[in-house]
Structure formats: structure tokens, C-alpha cells
Amino acid sequence: MLKSLPHSSEEYYCINCSDFKKQNEVDPDWNCIVCNNSVEIRIVTKSKDQNCHRISATEIEIDDKVLMHRDEKSMRVLGKTDLGIMVQLNLEGYGAWKVKKDEGILKINGRWNF
User: Rg for the chain (alpha carbons), in Å?
Assistant: First the structure.
């Protein structure tokens, strides 16, 4: 189970069901409870309308773009280091961000277009 607080503007969309989902229709691993497909997460900020997935810190790769906490600025991952129960992500313009391996990270896929 991924541990994460939702972004204040999160909306959930299941491609398989072709439908927006309420938070109670998404399981703790961010899958649709109807079809078990990973949901697309829409994050709307003042300047962007983004398509994201929530994945574990261990799944993040170099050059991925991520959102930190409730910030609206995305940051590119420059490096990743395994620290036992933690992962250190080195973020462009920020520096080192240490997170638990099972923490859900918002990975940006691009613009929202559903």
C-alpha cells in the first residue's frame, strides 16, 4: 500500500471505465476498485493541467518529473540513491529529497488530455 496525502486538486480517471472516480472508488494503491486498472490523476494548478500517476519512490527513474507534496512546480529527477528504508531523490533546482520507499510520489506524465 502506498502512503501519500492527496494533492488539493486531485481528480481520478480510469481509462478502462472511461469515467472519473471519487476518492472512495480508488484503492490504497491508486487503482480503480471496479476494474483494478491504475487510475490517471489530474492535478490542476494556477498554471498547469497535468496528468500524473502515483507510484512508489522506488519506481521513480532518472529524468522523471515529479511533484513534491502540494507544490505546483514540477522537478526533474537527476539522481536516485537507495538508503535502506529510504530513497534519496536528487531534484533539479531543489537538491536531495529523502522519502520512504513506500511513499507515493506524483510522477508527471504530461498534459491532461482525457
Answer: 14
Q: 60-87 burial, b if ≥16 CB within 10 A, otherwise e?
A: beeebbbbbeeebebbebeeeeeeeeeb
Which residues fall within 8 angstroms of residue 18, CB to CB, at 6 or more apart?
A: none
Q: Could you read off the pLDDT tens digit of each residue along the chain, which spans 114 residues?
A: 555 656 667 899 999 999 999 989 999 888 999 999 999 999 887 777 888 888 999 999 999 999 876 666 789 999 999 999 999 999 999 999 999 998 889 899 888 876
- Write down the pTM of the prediction: 0.81
User: How far apart are alpha carbons 27 and 55 in whole angstroms?
Assistant: 13
Query: What distance in Å separates the CA atoms of residue 106 and residue 43, rounded to the nearest whole number?
Result: 9
Could you say which DSSP state residue 102 is in? T
d(CA 54, CA 31): 10
Spacing of C-alpha 38 from chain mean position: 11
